[in-house]
Amino acid sequence: MDIIASLGLGFSVALDPMNILYCFIGVLLGTLVGVLPGIGPTATIAMLLPITFSLSPAGALIMLAGIYYGAQYGGSTTAILINLPGESSSAVTAIDGYQMAKQGRAGPALATAALGSFFAGTVGTLLLAFFAPPLARAALNFGAPEYFALIVLGLLVSIALAHGSILKALAMIVLGLLLGMVGQDIYTGQPRFTFGIRELYSGLNFVSVAVGIFGVAEILRNLENEKGRDVMVKAVKNLWLTKDDFKRIAAPVVRGTVLGSVLGILPGGGHILASFASYSAEKRLSKHPEEFGHGAIEGVAGPESANNAAAQTSFIPLMTLGIPAHPVMALMVGAFILQGITPGPNVINDQPALFWGIIASMWIGNVMLVLLNLPLIGLWVKMLSIPYRALFPAIVLFACIGCYSINQNIYDVYAIGFFGVVGYVLMRFGCEPAPLLLGFVLGPLLEEHLRRAMIISRGDPTVFITRPISATLLGLAVLAVVIAVLPSIRKKRKEVFVEED
Amino acid sequence: MAVSNFSTKDLVSGGIFVVAGAYFALEALNYEVGTPFRMGPGFMPLFLGSVLAGLGLAVAASGWKKPDTEERLTPSWRGIVLIIGVVIFFGATIRGLGFVPVVLVSSFVAALSSRLNSPLFSILLAITLTVMCTLIFVVGLGMSVPWFGPWLGM
Prior knowledge:
The structure holds 2 protein chains of 2 kinds.
Chain A: H1 3-14, H2 17-34, H3 41-48, H4 57-82, H5 91-102, H6 106-139, H7 144-160, H8 166-179, E1 183-184, E2 191-192, H9 206-224, H10 243-265, H11 270-285, H12 298-313, H13 315-321, H14 327-338, H15 347-350, H16 352-384, H17 388-407, H18 410-428, H19 434-456, H20 463-466, H21 468-485, H22 487-498
Helix pairs in contact in A: 1-16, 2-3, 2-4, 2-16, 3-4, 3-9, 3-17, 4-5, 4-6, 4-14, 4-16, 5-6, 5-12, 6-10, 6-12, 6-13, 6-16, 7-8, 7-19, 7-21, 8-19, 9-17, 9-18, 9-19, 10-11, 10-12, 11-12, 17-18
Chain B: H1 8-28, H2 43-62, H3 77-97, H4 99-112, H5 119-140
């Protein structure tokens, strides 16, 4: 297919005045909600998903994509200004960004984040345009064993660089996989782990699990220590970068973009992995490694670019294979299905206008994001001066209302409370919630493809290593674990994580 | 609570994993397990539950000789009870009482879960949030829920 003609089609869809408006609303809403402390892209999309129900498929998905990278950017803003990352991938930005803000350099930090994101977003979008079609074609050769191997790879890669203890991350993934099995069995219809509650037959609602385990658990943790959670950075002066700053961020932005683009394609926390990997790479390559953790601008530029490049390329597995690379993409799958479209290899052929329209709108969204955010930084800071004690009741209510409005199912609301407590307890005892959510999303897919593969192979497990693609993917998965367990790398992991406190 | 020579964190989180894994594995025995060729609904949960229980033991064991050093904050029981209470209240009454009263009560109680919020502030916050949420969700987004529910005779 001719890329230029396809992109032309895409831009004709994306530049439709209504779609520009949806894109703008999405970016604006995403930034507004994402900039609230403790709310990252997952919770933002979860809450704003219902808004898009009544729109056309293209409009809805363009708006959701806008919300996604708007929230991603908004999350970095809070990470920099008040050291409160809205999600795991902006945790890295907080390390040096917050230090810069404390030194009165919040302006350059925010500007670096915006510019790095824009560059990375542009490259990521181009990669998506060029590589999505061939990947989609390759995806048609994917059978059940390959999908299974791909999911295993995604799950295992996400441990390799996850926070802290590998064992705990692994256990959280398995717990997530098990929680994903609540509901009717796909092949026999047998209800599992439902306590006889009919409303649970269709499984636990992903949004409830996400909002409970991230949002509510985070609130419970913040209530432990009510002092010292006020806005400490009041003055954001000197917005723009100096010439020296530009020189310092150029290379990290490019490297971050490359790392992010590659890792973003992997299902399973690729974007989280990307920002951590970029941070440790920059630290190793820097001439002044001692500055890292004390306000090094490279420590903002690299991870932010990586994060955003990964955000774009993580649409590749979604749009071509129908596999969500991370929880936000799982919500996007939900959005596709609600619009009557099954995400997967066929979207590009059946709905070319939609496919290319979304891609083109991503670039337009990135332009809007920069235009919107650079002048508005002062306003964000004012919004952050709302005290936390007034903010968290609003978060609790938005969570309840948002989850209830999706299916009008009150068990979805109860699930928020249950997973709020579960998430809080696990967090208190040193377990990161992100891997659990990933397992929860991929659990049903893993089971389905494993069972299908075993039926096809008549119960012969060697099918996974005799088929070349699946063997390669499983090999990579093993490699990922080996690298994670190697002591030398472990030491590096510690170096990266120590500075976060 | 501190067991000498053991990390409480690892011990407790490991314990949680063992209990959860055991529950899933035992419950899975009630379903048809099947063979690797034709796996039944119980196969994966039984397998993964056992793996989780094993991982839990490993997590607990990994805390050996690594007692916790940092001091942990005491949980805010008031916060936990009130916030979870609000969530349950919301679910239990949204159909009966309708949007406005439920949101008003919920936001008031949620606000009270912070010790920094005075009752007066909580009332003002509750009214503001109710107006805001009603405008955003019911008027703006057309959420299909009555303003006042059947329990109030409307």
